[in-house]
């Protein structure tokens, strides 16, 4: 049991002890309070397991979603690869052509 749940159970037990019997000698009446305390403790454990299971479920959902998204991105990258290579070749050819034109311009300008 986590410390948080233990504090809740202890607090409820004290409140129940004080509420059921207005006098402080409630320690002698532990048979009545003991069974209700165990009931509260059992309920708290069940809630704790539910929260734990929910957190695990959310974690697994996020992990599976990330895997699926990663696979989709990889597929998109594979699909785009030929287009990227084609675009790069066009840019490279354009840069080479521009470089040649600039070279020709200066050769004509200075008479070489």
Number of helices: 2
> On the 0-100 scale, what is the average pLDDT?
76
Order of helices and strands: HH
N-to-C CA distance: 90 Å
Give me the count of strands.
0
Output the structural class.
mainly alpha
Shape: rod-shaped
Tell me the Rg in angstroms. Answer: 37 Å
Q: Regions with pLDDT < 50 over 5+ consecutive residues?
A: none
* Fraction of residues in helix: over 70%
Q: Into how many domains do the coordinates divide?
A: 1
Largest sheet: none
Give the amount of beta strand, in percent: under 5%
Structure report:
The structure is a single chain. The chain is 88% helix and 0% strand. It is mainly α. It has one domain. It is rod-shaped. The chain is built from two helices and no strands.
How are the secondary structure elements laid out?
Layout: H1 3-20, H2 30-110
Could you write a compact summary of the structure shown?
The protein has 112 residues and is mainly alpha-helical. It is built from two helices and no strands. α1 packs antiparallel against α2.
Label this structure with key terms.
112 residues; mainly alpha
């Amino acid at each position: 049991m986590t410390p948080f749940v233990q504090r809740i159970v202890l607090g409820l037990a004290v409140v129940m002890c004080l509420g059921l019997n207005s006098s402080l000698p409630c320690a002698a009446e532990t048979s009545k309070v003991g069974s209700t305390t165990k009931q509260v403790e059992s309920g708290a454990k069940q809630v704790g397991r539910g929260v734990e299971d929910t957190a695990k479920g959310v974690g697994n959902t996020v992990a599976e979603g990330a895997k699926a998204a990663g696979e989709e991105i990889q597929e998109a990258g594979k699909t785009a690869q030929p287009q990227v290579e084609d675009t790069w070749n066009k840019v490279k050819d354009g840069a080479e052509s521009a470089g040649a034109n600039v070279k020709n311009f200066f050769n004509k300008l200075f008479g070489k």
